[in-house]
Amino acid sequence: MKEKYYISTAIAYTSAKPHIGNTYEVVLADSIARYKRLKGFDVYFQTGTDEHGEKIEIKAREAGVTPKEYVDGVAKEIKRIWDVMNTSYDRFVRTTDVIHEQIVQKIFKKMYDQGDIYLGEYKGLYCVPCESFWTETQLIEGKCPDCGRDVEERKEEAYFFKLSNYQDKLIKYIEENPDFIQPEARKNEMINNFLKPGLQDLCISRTSFDWGIPVDFDSKHIIYVWLDALTNYITNIGYDPDGSSEEFKKLWPADLHLIGKDIIRFHTIYWPCFLMSLDLPLPKQVFGHPWLLMEDGKMSKSKGNVLYADDLVKEFGVDAVRYYLLHEIPFGNDGVLSNKLLVERINSDLVNILGNLVNRTIVMAKKYFKGNIKNQREYENVDDDLISMVNALEDNIEDKMAQLEVGEAIDEIFNVLRRSNKYIDETTPWILAKDETKFDRLETVLYNLIESIRVCAIFLEPYMPDTCKKILKQLNVDNSSFKVCEDIVYELDDPVILFQRIDVKDN
Length: 507
What we know:
Blueprint: E1 4-9, E2 12-13, H1 20-38, E3 42-50, H2 54-63, H3 67-84, E4 91-94, H4 98-113, E5 117-127, E6 132-134, E7 152-161, H5 167-176, E8 181-182, H6 184-195, E9 202-203, E10 205-206, E11 213-215, E12 218-223, H7 225-230, H8 232-235, H9 246-251, E13 256-260, H10 264-277, E14 286-289, E15 292-294, H11 309-316, H12 318-328, E16 335-337, H13 339-369, E17 372-373, H14 381-401, H15 406-427, H16 429-432, H17 439-460, H18 465-475, E18 490-491
Parallel strand pairs: 1-3, 1-13, 2-3, 3-4, 8-14, 13-14, 15-16
Antiparallel strand pairs: 5-6, 5-7, 7-9, 10-12, 11-12, 17-18
């Protein structure tokens, strides 16, 4: 039996088309899911859309359509972009799916019946775009601390969830499970800024708008965003308070919730408390990834600096964009994107290091041996370093991916590619080709290079799946070993240019 691995992204809010910063998350999750499949895990990868709330109701009204028509259009666009980016999700879920709505109502009723939900009144400062209430002390210069917009005072009858009931239990869990919240800085922020000062009970229903899941025993109330949105991780795999499915029993708890650092509080405080109320295990890890910024700061329409994934793909190709997103955003810090930086990375890494190596090697194999290469075992000392680097690649990548250091894992592959290019300079195949007595040595050199390329291509698949396919097609071999093999007989296909150099003056 394969070991299961359940990974999810946050569900994307259907207020507008997702920009490249939103897209980064699903590409990052996809690379992790693909890597786990490559290593033999039975992976379940879930993503989707968050579709209820006052903000959607307002936007639909402004557009002159129903809320359902509005979210149908945006959800379709989000799914299209996830597909453009070649993401391998197993299920694309929507919070307007009937089964989700039915189970959310059951969850609400279960919590109410056991005393974790009660009816009260909420008075507070409310930010419509963020759909969040704030206290006066949480505001920054009188504005919403998340988005910087104006807040308005609201007062209404509401149901509350007793977060305070689970505060001590949650603190104990976090302390006993140090990997639950990552990176470490996010964990410290949650404990020091939210848990230790004391949790207030959470408003989980609204009466001032209609677009949402009604409380089935009090229909004037709409179930508020976080109880609706967060439960998508269990409703879509078969959780039911009356008896859950075999799929749920197999998949839960999730191995990884991959989310933006701006919603870490909801996933590491609200969500665990909801799960404790339902007497369910907590996810094994919540990882708050950094943001992708523009050179002039955070992306916003008002700044006019918003980039969209599909536009970048049309200009540079899917794998070039994937490579940049995955390689250039540091593990714990925000990354920066611009067309200039993207072009520089394509030319330096994808053209010079990767594309040049593959093309030179296959061209030489075609020129000197008509593409028919086998290992003549004419080894020299210079071969040892390259072969040992290739054989160490699996463990080196695993060390990085275990910590979700995806950019560093890609670096491990490119270190081998750089070493392979250096190996060409050290062995000088073009000089060996001038001496017929050196042909066995020449063929061994080319064999070593091809094996290095084969192993690197296999490990590139999670990050650059189309490029992996193109390389392996040129090698024309069906061998998925992660180590150097000594007895493959290659009959290479014609060389294909993987990436074209881009004239910097044109971008």
